[in-house]
Amino acid sequence: MQFLHGYYEPTLLILYEPLRTWPGRIAIRQDTCCILALSLNLQQRVHPVIWSYTNLPFDCLRLLAVPRPLGGVLIMAVDSLLYLNQSVPPYGVSLNSFTDFSTSFPLKPQEGLKISLDCAQACFLSYDRLVLSLKGGELYVLTLFNDGMRSVRNFYFDKAAASVLTTSMTLCEDGYLFLGSRLGNSLLLHYTEKAAEVDDIAKRDEKTESDANDPPSKKKRMDAIGDWMASDVALIDPDELEVYGSETMATKQLTSYTFEVCDSLINIGPCGKICMGEPAFLSEEFVQNTDPDLELVTTAGYGKNGALCVLQRSVRPQVVTTFELPGCVHMWTVMGPPAEKKPPEKTEESDDPASEDKAAEQPLTNTHAFLILSRADSSMILQTDQEINELDHSGFSTQNPTVFAGNLGDGRYVLQVCPMGVRLLDGTRQLQHIPLDVGSSIVAGSLADPHVIIRSAEGLVIHLTLRGDPAAGCRLAVLRPQLTAVKAKILSICVYKDVSGLFTTQYREPDEPAKPEKPLPPPKESIDMSSNGLLDDEDELLYGESEENPIQKEPVRMTSEEAPSVAESMFEIKEVAPTYWLFVARENGVLEIYSLPEYKLCFLVKNFPMGQKVLVDSVQMTAPSGTKSEKLSDMSHESMPVVHEILVVGLGIRHSRPLLLARVDEDLLIYEAFPFYETQREGHLKLRFKKMSHDIFLRERKYKTQKPENEEEEKAFQSRQWLHPFSDISGYSGVFLCGYRPYWLFMSSRGELRCHPMFVDGPIHCFAPFHNVNCPKGFLHFNKQGELRISTLPTHLTYDAPWPVRKVPLRCTPHFVNYHVDSKTYCVVTSQPDPCNHLVRFTGEEKEYELLERDSRYIFPTMDKFSLQLLSPVSWETIPNTRVDLDEWEHLTCLKNVMLSSEGTTTGMKGYLALGTNYCYGEDVTSRGRIIILDIIDVVPEPGQPLTKNKIKIVYSKEQKGPVTALSQVVGFLLSAIGQKIYIWQLKDNELVGVAFIDTQIYIHSVVTVKNLILVGDVFKSVSLLRYQEASRTLSLVSRDVRPLEVYAVEFFIDNTQMSFLVTDAERNLLLYMYQPESRESCGGQRLLRRGDFHVGSPVVSMFRIKCRMGDIAKYDRRAASIVDGRHITMMATLDGSLAYVLPVPEKTYRRLLMLQNVLVTNIPHYAGLNPKAYRMYYSQRRFLGNPHKNILDGELIWKFMHLSFMERSELSKKIGTTVTQITDDLLEIETYTAHF
Questions:
Q1: Does 986 share its domain with 867?
Q2: Which part of the chain is the RSE1/DDB1/CPSF1 first beta-propeller domain (predicted)?
Q3: What's the sign of the alpha-carbon dihedral 697, 698, 699, 700?
Q4: Which contacts qualify for 294-298: CB closer than 8 Å, 24 or more apart?
Q5: Which residue, among 354, 347, 468, 475, has the nearest Cα to 406 in the 3D structure?
Q6: Which SS3 state, helix, strand or coil, does residue 1140 take?
């Protein structure tokens, strides 16, 4: 259905098919589609039919309403394209030769084109031009030629580019096109048109008249390729030109379009198969960890968008070197005076993208010259150049601990704050020393060049400003700021330099758009990112790799000169003058914002630590001290959570997204500023802060038997600075969060806040960015053992994603991926479509190939050609000479690592790769398949090719009596599902010898085994549990589910001694079955009982099991450790590109979290008012007698408890009779057990 343009009343056009047909019946019934236009008269409620048309081709797919002044409708059919308009004769073209016999609708063949429009997406760029994206990702620009009568008389197709396989297409605004894709990365394209000269076309018209006898293909060849893009008008019949006059045709200007990628959204779906493997690069410092270090690999995409996605949940730094330096409490890195040759640049701005390329020849700029380490009673100053040396004699103070250090004067001067004084240095030379005795020692500092604010232990604040210029010599001026006279002690301060323009006290007209908030066209950004290796082969993804057209190989990049002019015409980037603001958090829960340097209170929030959703300016000023309200607030803040530290930092593109982070008790609050002009109060900030949700736990897990650590140390650790902003570590900016569970918070130019844990090194005590010759754009951190590590952030992963991810393009469809443990390689099965122009006929056992002769506009069907290849996780390149090609027509149905009994090894078992295949010749030929057993052997690598140390050896490959649909191992034997039977084989002397078999249901497609138990999933008949008895060599059915179920994947679910069976189905449910022969309804164990169900909402086709992550539990609680050790997590990947896990929890935890889930359903607002409880109920179209069993908690909903405010959390926990601490501990426990990858 579509609304048409150009009518007075809303007019709805409907495409429908009253009598159905299909391609096999078009000889008898064709042209079954019709259209009908209804005029909707809303006043009189009558809807007359004003236009109808019948006998359209049966394969019409969709309607596109053509904008005014043309009007009418374009109808896309699979093999044709039609234009219809009321009271105008229809015009249609055939796009390939299928229309010769599929329709009798009058169609004109479109010259020089052979395409089909199934799965195509379309979008109008202007009233007579639209972009078509075909199912292979080709982008065509279609131009409609109209004569004077509102009617279209010609179509012109111009192939512009080859792009991602498109699922949806939207014109964002002039010049920008969004291609949404389910199978690849979604792209934002910038298109520009290049016009051809009008006189050219007129001249060419004359030429056409003179040699009208030439065939059109010859004419095309006469012109150079660049010309004929513009001269396709010349291919119109000369007679038509005479009838309609050549003037009107020549005025239509033909243009060709170029597309370039501005940005892309990474997509890891659809995840067909998932497996875990070991990362190739793990610094040796982390190899001794008790838990294995793993990464996830999934298959993604289809066709040329096929890829492998390598996912790591936690950040693993590449350690350059480690020093033992016990007793360090704090550290800072500062820059030294600039080299004399050139003026210094500022650190905050990351390097200009253009200078990235030159960085190779130039020495690094803005490197950190000094590292200041603070101990409890002294400081240590290290000079960091080619090597790191300690400075004995310098202007720095080493006798006292350092409280704060930083750079002033655009990075020229160094400031060192000690408990009793402040020093200003130029390099190692001391310029100024200001002793400060304010009654208590100085404990914290905050800097925004040229302002420094320091705070004493008693909560006294001192303001220092850098004055003067480098020639005359700079000095620090000391100021005692006049803050609001309130008795409440100041707990934390932060000074912030705002360049976003959001922090303003001026009232602005609401209709004037907020300039800095707008997203900007990011051609510059994307180039910058590719230089960091983040946009992997994005160009190739856009322009494809199809060989047939040389034009698309030359994408036209905008030159840097014309880029700004385009940007200026659309967005105005206003230079914002920086403003300075001081944030103050007090003991009574008040957060104040003062403007610097005049110290005017511009914003005041009461009860800040409570974590409300929005921070609002409490306009009523606090009453003067001594009144009743003051005493009341004194009482109430006893129960108020303590603010340990606050940090305000501008992140995102050009620091336009100010974030306020606060560490309150054991929580982290993150707020983002947004403009709010309704504030009536004069001189107050016109903004508010909204809370951002995250899943970060700050607290560490406490064990009952754990000895309480020294409380003093604990307190000191809590009061340290945990939040460290950084502006350029491997090209990213954000905040690093130290503590028991360290996290990276990144925000890239796209403006999405990403939180990634870094648990690999345990608790981290302090952190500093470190830009040095030996470690460019790296960082330093101290772990719990007092080791200083100098590290870099691995750049082969993209951190602007929910999990750090690396996408490895394969350019063909991946079907299976499997990690081979012995050789540490991945085995990948892919397929490539080949056009197929012959059929197979069988006469007895003999194959005959029948070649199909077809005309030049016939589109041949494609056949998938399968192959298997080894990949090395070191570089994610294919290993040479390890490719195994399957036969033509042969499809690979399963791939498994199997351990088969072998006399050649000490354990009596040897690992092999087993493949099952099937020959798909068509429905007339009986299906047959092969079992192939491969061994990956180590050989001597070829010189200069270290990857060639592995080769594939084919151990067994024979045809079977039916299709091989599933494979597994059972007690050293090979188990295979062949047709409707399951066989067990023994591998002896490279031959398979039959051991046992059993008859099964329709089509077994998934099998998993544990010891001698076999769980099989059938495509329609649910699951069965089989058992193989070795003594009697029999395979027997133990129990099965009697209800029909379309199974997608099966896996065991293990909790110590209890085993159940997880099954996912076609209706996106997750089911839990148990074998309970003592239960009455199981009929003596013949039936599997359903014990839990849950609606996932995405199709799950791949699952695997992994043990719980132990962490430190074994050190403190042996008994708990033994219980946890026997618990398995079941991981799963969905076709929507999401990852999930199921974990067994103890009964007490389950009851508590179930009550929490029930209160959360009714107590928190849900998106669009949807009901999570109803959504997670088992869903089925078939109606069965029996209730849903539930028994599976909705983790996504329960985790929203962590997003609530302090008050809401305590209220909800009171409702269910427990405490917030207890619930947080439960969630933290689940989080630590599942913190793999």
A1: yes
A2: 1-195
A3: positive
A4: 294/1106, 294/1236, 294/1237, 295/1237, 296/1131, 296/1139, 296/1237, 297/817, 297/819, 297/826, 298/268, 298/271, 298/272, 298/273, 298/274, 298/817, 298/1102, 298/1133
A5: 347
A6: strand
- Under 8 Å CB-to-CB from 1150, ≥6 apart: which residues? 1193
Could you tell me how far CA 347 lies from the centroid of its own chain? Answer: 29
CA distance 189 to 171: 10
Which pLDDT score, from 0 to 100, does residue 217 have? 39
Q: What is the 8-class DSSP label of residue 940?
A: P
What six digits make up the tokens of 805? 């991810």
What does the alpha-carbon distance between residue 1026 and residue 966 come to, in Å, rounded to a whole number?
A: 15
CATH number at residue 1156: 1.10.150.910
Report d(CA 1001, CA 980) in Å as an integer: 6
pLDDT value of residue 362: 59
Report the distance separating Cα 602 and Cα 618, nearest Å.
10
Please state, in angstroms and rounded to a whole number, the distance separating the CA atoms of residues 739 and 717.
8
Number of other CB atoms surrounding residue 1220 within 10 Å: 17
- Report how far Cα 825 is from the mean position of its chain's Cα atoms: 25
Q: Based on the fold, state whether residues 188 and 46 are members of the same structural domain.
A: no
pLDDT at res. 343: 37
**Rounded Cα–Cα distance for residues 573 and 653 (Å):** 12
Q: Is residue 16 part of a domain?
A: yes
pLDDT of residue 516: 40
| Residues whose CB falls within 8 Å of the CB of residue 655, separated by 6 or more in sequence, listed in order | 348, 499, 500
Of the CA atoms within 13 Å of residue 262, those in its CB half-sphere come to 21
Residue 1172: in which H helix or E strand, if any? helix 1172-1175
Residues 945 and 819 in one domain: yes
Residues of the chain with pLDDT under 70: 148-150, 196-253, 339-363, 508-572, 619-638, 679-680, 705-710
Maximum pairwise Cα distance, the chain: 106
182 and 106 share one domain: no
- Residue 476 maps to a domain: no
Say whether 206 sits in a helix, a strand or coil.
Answer: helix
CA gap 1134, 1137 in Å, rounded: 6
182 and 135 Cβ atoms separated by less than 8 Å: no
- Note if the bond before 450 is cis, omega within 30 degrees: yes
Query: DSSP label at 96?
Result: S
Q: What is the dihedral of CA 709, 713, 717, 720, to 10 degrees?
A: 170
Helices (H) then strands (E): counts for the chain:
19, 76
Instruction: Answer yes or no: do 144 and 31 share one domain.
Output: no
In a domain, 738, yes or no: no
- Beta strand 743-747 with 753-757 is antiparallel
Kindly state the tokens that stand for 1048.
């997608």
Q: How many domains, in total, are found in the chain?
A: 4
Q: What is the pLDDT of residue 536?
A: 42
Asked, for residue 826, whether it belongs to a domain, the answer is: yes
Q: What is the side-by-side strand order in the sheet with 764-772?
A: 318-324, 787-792, 775-783, 764-772
Whose tokens are 């426990």? That residue is: 1229
Residue 596: per-residue pLDDT: 86
Q: How far apart are CA 893 and CA 915, in angstroms?
A: 8
546-593 pLDDT per residue, tens: 333 333 333 333 333 333 334 444 566 777 889 999 999 999 899 999
Q: Which domain holds residue 1173?
A: 1145-1236
The Cα 228–Cα 222 span in angstroms is 9
Are 175 and 93 found together in one domain? no
Q: Are residues 935 and 970 in the same domain?
A: yes
- Looking at residue 527, its pLDDT comes to 33
**Residue-wise over 525-539: b if at least 16 C-beta within 10 A, else e?**
bbbbbbbeebbbebe
Which of 116, 136, 168 is a domain's end point?
A: 116
pLDDT of residue 629: 42
Which structure tokens are listed for 729? 């570590």
